[in-house]
Automatic annotation (TrEMBL):
Residue ranges, annotated region (Disordered): 54-76
Protein's GO biological process: snRNA 3'-end processing
Primary location recorded for the protein, binned into one broad class: nucleus
UniProt keyword annotations, A-Z: Chromosome, Nucleus
A Pfam family that the UniProt record links to this protein: TPR_INTS8
Full protein name: INTS8 TPR repeats domain-containing protein
InterPro entries, A to Z: INTS8, TPR_INTS8
Family: Belongs to the Integrator subunit 8 family.
Domain called INTS8 TPR repeats: residue spans: 515-991
Compartment annotation: Chromosome; Nucleus
Gene Ontology terms: cellular component: chromosome; integrator complex
Amino acid sequence: MNFLKPRTVPLSEETMLWFEFLLKPSLLTKHLGKPNPDPSPTDLITQFLSKAPEGQGQQTDIAPPDPDASHKPDGLRNTQKQLALKILALKIAAYMRWDLDKLERTLSVSLQIQLLADLCSITAGRMITLPSSLLHDSAKLGPDGSKHSLTFALTLYHRWVLRAQVLRAAVIKNLKAFPNHGPTISDLAAFVLRDESSIPALEPITQLSIDFLNQVLMEPQAFRVLTYESFVPLDWNVEHTQQRFDAAIAIKPCELRAQIHYDLCQYYLYVQKYDLARQNVLLCKENYAQWQREEIGRTGLPPAYCTVDAETLQGYLLACGVTGEPDGLLQRLHESILNHYSDIVLILKEDNLRKEIPMTQRKLLELNIEGYNAIGSTDGNLTEQKELVLAVVALNIIRYVMDGENILSCNVALQKYKAQQSKLIESLFQYADEQYEQFSLVDQGLLKQYFYRVITLHGTEMVPPFETLVQTYSKVVSLQELKDFRAQRTQPETLLGWIATQVDWLVPETKNHRLEMGHLERQLISYNNSTTIRKLLVRIAGKTPSKPLYTINPNWTISYAMEQALVPVQHGFLQDFAYIITGKAREQAARKDYSTAMALLTVLKNETQRQDLRENKSPFVKVSKPVGWEILHVQIQQVLDEWPRKPADQAQLVRNSKQCLSAAVSAPVGSSEPPPHAKLVDHCAALLLNLNEWSALLMSTVDKRFPGVQLCAALSQAVLDIEKFKGTKKTNREAWEMVLPLFLNPPGSRQRQLAPDSPLMLLIPMLREPLVVSILLSLLAKLHNILRDEVNADLNADPNTSNYNIKLVNEALNLLLNQALRYYPNNIPWLKLKGDVEFAANNFEAAMRYYVTALISGTEYCTVHLQRPLFDDFLIRRMVKCSTSLGCFVQGAVLCQFFDETDYGLSFKSISEKPASYADAMDSYYSCIWDPTLLEFIVNWHHKRGEHKRRLQAISFLAQLELNANNNEEIKREAAAIRKNRFLRSLAKQYMC
């Protein structure tokens, strides 16, 4: 017989031995009720389970058949002694309220698993092996099983699965941080490390545990917790007892949810899934608060199940970025986003009064909702989602107006939502009217000025008119104020005669042939419907026109291939119809009305495929191929114009473009069937280049008749070389050799601009693919630097650089940059390059605008901190040069802090410039300085100049706690980051707005 704690002194009379509880289970209740029972509850569990080792991992009894085994409950393969010990262990765990914190601190991992397996087996009424049984038939019950009790047991086990992995990681991390602690390691660390091999086996069922716990949260039935009375011990004179699972008590749903969300939050923090951790910690906080209100203090009894610690929960809230302030609007905003934007309008209205949420966060919210709708979300009614967007935009505009100092103009929204402008303005009136009396007098004045401006700009576009809105929402602008405002701004109207107001002039009934022909020709020019054009041509043909009808409008032009195809066609209806339809289609395509152009060409295509024309072998049938090329040309124009939206039939469009290129390069000179016109061939090559069909361009045989296709093929080869030889400088020079001659000065010539028909000038407006644009930009930038002698000598190997015209290079570079930034306005390298080009041309204000735009885009409109590699010393030095050249010397001094090491010499020189204090209001930049040395210099400089007020102002900023030299590096970095963004916003307002 083993004692619990072997000692060299006799045991105390109060000390009991483990087998005494086995012989007389009624002693257990009395023992556990003592203030400090010896042995402790967990020591008893250890002794009981160690004497009943069968369980985890053993499917059958190891010992020979026991005569007592016939008396054990059906479905459980335990001896009577083993079953009695297990039930006693579970009674103690129930007495401890199934507190996993206490069990994990004092029991080894193997005993924890054994205890949980015994709980699952006894509640199921059959043997359950963890975790293998959970993957197959955990829902089956034995003869003595209980469904709600098994649910309780499995919930406890799945909670433990998540917690065990978190605890093991925490202990290992602690030992790595303190490797020499040795003897002072806690029991928890010792147990976890001793059973470290058991924990990785839980990883395969982790997702199963998460799914099970989430399912428990959604169960409608009450969750019942097994109590001390639920387990009936076996007495020595009783062969079989039935467990009292009906003694389990039902707990509040909020108590269960608080505990499970707490455990899920712990696990998600461990696996670094912070969004899910945040969701669960907020739900835990909500349910924990509800549970405290409903249960704590009412019964006077300790909690039956939940062991959430309030202080630890607060720590998890802070770790998940929740401030813990229940009334914080920013926190409420984040919670609203997680709950699908619930109460978002109320939060934004309240923020318009309190102004707590940064405008960058509100703008991001607006963009998030727009994106949520743009991807076609099916959550909720589409109309309600659109109204929610307009409500958020309207409330943001009101906040913009009242702030008075923002980077983004509030009028952008009115242009952005032009299709819903009337509804947006009505929402503006509604929300401003609801809170108008709560705003300050200054804010009320700003709102009135803004609404007067809206009335001026959009007065004729509103449905309903502003008078109706003002009558409904009269607080911001009253009806009398509207009348007075319009009376002041009314301009004398020019009176037009009746004849000038007619949309169309009616031709009187007359037999004047020339007048009637003119009227019909005017209609032929105006209408774009193929059926109407056909009828007009028939009417005009009956009046014997004196000239071909396609000559009446000089804007109708057709390609050479189409013209050659129409030559064999007899002069008459078909020839005029084909010419006019093609000319009108080109005219509509030039106006970007691609749908009309395609409709016209499709009708002409069908006309060329008429069965009677084919049977009669009419030459008009041969017009079909040039019409197909015209359709392809319009399709490519539409794709390039609507970039980056990809066409629905992209694969077919690529095939047609390849066929066109093949037809162009394979057509022999002087062929009866003229090849596609050169403009279409260039468009096809550009489309393949933009759609990453680079190999197709190389596979087609290119001759010198199509220099544009040659250039596209050279760029394709450069792209493929870059992908093939990554990290090396080995690239194809064919593009370089093709572009270089375009910038030569012809002998005796003073060329002032690039030839508009050169392959480069024709290709630049059609380039869209970022990688191709970057390659061409680098090529032109390299040539620009060579001609300016701004690169190393090894790059100046090209002979006679004086023969090249750097102005033409600069023109091409600017043209390509403007085109690229039109489609990718936030491409940071291109913005910096555009700034460098302007800097090289001494356009310092334009250079600063592009440099600042690059930094603003890189920081997502100052919502993230400015840091490298977004900027470097080279960029900052150029920005300093721009600022000082523009007379903004203090701006340059502040920028000197952005270097790796502050350039004090340059910054002190900038501040000491005579006009420094007058050109850019130097005292407004004190809040952007984080270098104490620079502030100290400013204080002394003001002292020397006798500027007492400015000196005191600089001293007040120098005395800020976050600028203390004794602060740690993290505080210093945070202070610098905040001031960098503040300075960047001021630059944006100066150079971007």
